[in-house]
């Protein structure tokens, strides 16, 4: 299954490359699905494709450099032509849970400044309702215990993220809480409520940001557009 999942991730990523045009400035998302995107883009750059990318995490930056993708940043770029990113969960309205890798603030900033956002994933990420994947919420370190109290008042059971035995610190110097809700019936309302809490920097709910989803499974990669009439 894991082997197949990897093949599906690769298939979704390679399909997304069809939307990349010469001269574009791209938002480079994060995660293992995006790894395949970067690998393919790197090969195309080698063959002469002229693109630049803004990476949404340090890991993506490292892979992009390894594959020879030219990078830029927001001091040079006002708007990205296209962002391509992964997701932890995708609902039928294209609302997403992201942040499994811990770079949700950069990912959201990159996607928010793109004309178009494509999400690439294996088919297991598509769900009827968000919530099986614990929602990552980035919070400031100071008084984090009190922010936990406020978040848990919304019905979540939260765990402070730990990596390699140490409390995980995001690339913005913050903590991440993984918040298990029974289900997230209204992602937009939950996001807005959590954002109002003092101590919350950002949530992993990506609301109304996605134009197109490319999902891959045993039948290959399927493109689903926000406007269904455009689906391929
Ligand atoms: O949001 C993310 C990282 O913060 C990733 O896009 C998400 O975790 C999906 O990762 P993968 O492609 O490895 O399944």
UniProtKB/TrEMBL annotation:
Stored Gene3D superfamilies: 3.30.70.260, 3.40.50.1360
Gene Ontology molecular function, alphabetical: isomerase activity
Pathway stated in the Swiss-Prot or TrEMBL entry: Carbohydrate degradation; pentose phosphate pathway; D-ribose 5-phosphate from D-ribulose 5-phosphate (non-oxidative stage): step 1/1
Enzyme type, top EC level: isomerase
Transmembrane segments: none
Active site: 107
Subunit-level organization: Homodimer.
Entry function: Catalyzes the reversible conversion of ribose-5-phosphate to ribulose 5-phosphate.
Name of the protein described by the UniProt record: Ribose-5-phosphate isomerase A
Annotated gene: rpiA
